[in-house]
Structure formats: structure tokens, C-alpha cells
Amino acid sequence: MSTASYPVTILGTGSSVPTRVVTNEELSKSVETSHEWIISRTGIRERRVASQDETTSEMGARASSAAIAASGIAASDIDAVIACTMTADMAFPSAACLIQEKLGLPKRTAFDIQAACSGFIYGLEVAASLIQAGVHRHVLLIGSERLSSIIDWSDRATCVLFGDGAGAVVLGRGRSHDSGVIGVRTGADGSDAQLLYMPGGGSNVPASVESVTSRQHFLRMNGREVFKHAVLVMEDISRELLREHGVMTHEIDLVIPHQANFRIIDTLAERLKIPIEKFFVNLDRYGNTSAASIPLAIDEAVRSDRLRPGHLVLFVAFGAGLTWGAALVRWPGREHK
Fold it and tell me: Would you call 12 exposed, middle or buried from its count of C-beta atoms within 10 A (0-12, 13-18, 19+)?
């Protein structure tokens, strides 16, 4: 393994979402809610819901193919596949292994990262470290979720929030440490695990008739407490990262936050004193897609020309665990070695 520290850049982005759109009006026919209630509390208008054959690995593979096509490198140049998800197709093997097979990339390193909605930031830290250390030259990083599979569709407090989708990026060696991935910080606090969790399905509560009938295989959330923690930890981690790299908030060109709730994003903008116009928001169309939300938003920002070469962009997320993370990236033009 090389002892050199290589700069890391993002070479290409891609995304994939299910074809089915579920609007607030449609949800209001099955649970006691309304379009106005959902919009006022979340900012979400609609979300995508996967069909039976739109698995986490299938959406991840589609997003990956698009990212590789945009990267300017061949699929065979990918050295490692990292999938960030909490809704893998099955407990094992990993979603990354299934995506690797779908892409026709045998014998590459492949593994999953489970940090819930912070997964993509955790994955970015790991992928960048592997490239910086010279272990790998190109890493495919994916966030893919089929959250509809763990949602209780009779619970209006959670079913209105989540959606399915995938995003991916290809990372490789850059030309300068002043461009590409500048820094990443992550953290966690397991003492707050009960605020957002799924009790069933693991070794503690394995599947049984009782666990199914008591609905323990669905996501559970204390929304009020999650909101408070989300704003605080995302502000703190953002300020820590910017301070570490000597960046002032007014220097940020674009913020791509985890797409959980518009009120969280709006409050974060106020606390960081960054205009809300500098935040890229697409949760109105996709809802909370967990680990997929940031890479999905990155790809849309690139394709809509909101994210341009030279832009200084901040990614920030929080999730179950509780976990959190932030990344600072100088968006590159097309460059790789």
C-alpha cells in the first residue's frame, strides 16, 4: 500500500427512482391526513414507491450505471463498490455484492455501510480514505433505499415522510487537494437509538408470528425529538467542519442537506445564517429517501446546473443511531488521473 496522500474528486453522478408517484392526495384516501397537513409540516408533496422488481440493489445498479457513464472512466476501472443502505434486499449478502453482480464487476471489493440517513456521508469518508491512502484508485459509492418496505402505511406520522430511490457517485484521484473532497466529519450517539429505530428483524427480535402481528418490523420514530436533535447536530457538525478548514459560511455556494423535512432545513439555514436559496431541496418530490437523499440531490443539482465546477458545497446529514456527518467539497470539472 502506498504511503502517499492522494487528492480525491467526484468524477460522475447518477440517480434512479421508481416510476410510481404517490401523492399526498392518494395517501389521504388511506390514512387520516390531507395534502395541506403534510405540506405544512414536512414540505413533501409526493414520493416514489418501488414496485416488487424495483429492489434496493436494482435501483442502486441503475444509479451506478449512470454515474459510471458520466465519470469518463470504464466500468472495469472501478476497484471497489460501497453501498449505503438500511433496506438491503436481504440481511446478507450485502447490497453492494448484488449491485456488483448486476454491473458485471466480479472480484471487486464490495460491502455495505449502515448509518441510516447519514450513510452517504459515512461512505464518503470511507471511500475518500481508501483513495487517499492509495488502496484503490476508483470507488463507486451508492446510496439506495426501499423504505416503503419498512413503513407502516397505516401510521400517518411516518408513512407520509418516506420514499424510495437511489443515487451514486464515482470517486477517483484528483489533481489538487484544494479541489474535490476537502474534508469529512462524522459522529454518533447510541444513547439516542430509541428515537428512530426498527425493533424487529435483527437478532434481538427475530421474525416470528408475534413480532409480525405486533408490527415490530416497521420503522418507529419520535418525530419531535428527532427534529430537535437533527437541527442541533447538523449545525454543530457543519460549523466544526467549516472551522477546521478555515471556511466562512458566506463562502459556501450550495448546501445539499439530507432531505428529511423542510422545516428542519429551513431552521438549519437560519442557524447557520446561510440563505435558504443556497440550499438544494428536492424532498417535495421524493420525501425522505434516507441514505439515497444526498446522492440523489447531488445528481439533480448537477443536471439542473445548480452545482457547477468551482462551487464550494456543503453536504450535511443526520440519521438513526443517532448518526450525523458533514462533508466539504470543491466541485470539480471533469478531471481524473
Answer: buried
* Residue listed under C-alpha cell 476537502: 182
Strands 254-257 and 21-23: unpaired
The C-alpha cell that represents 66 in the structure block: 449512470
Average pLDDT of the chain to the nearest whole number:
95
1-337 belongs to CATH 3.40.47.10? yes
Give residue 249's identity as a one-letter amino acid code.
T
Nearest to 145 by CA among 113, 170, 169, 184: 113
pLDDT digits (tens, 9 = 90+) for 70-117: 999 999 999 999 999 999 999 999 999 999 999 999 999 999 999 999
Domain spans in the chain, listed from the N-terminal domain onward: 1-337
Residue owning grid cell 469529512: 184
Cell 450505471 locates to 65
Tell me the backbone φ, ψ of residue 70, rounded to 5 degrees: -80, -15
Residues 247, 328: contact at Cβ < 8 Å?
yes
Catalytic residues: 117, 258, 288
The residue count of the chain comes to: 337
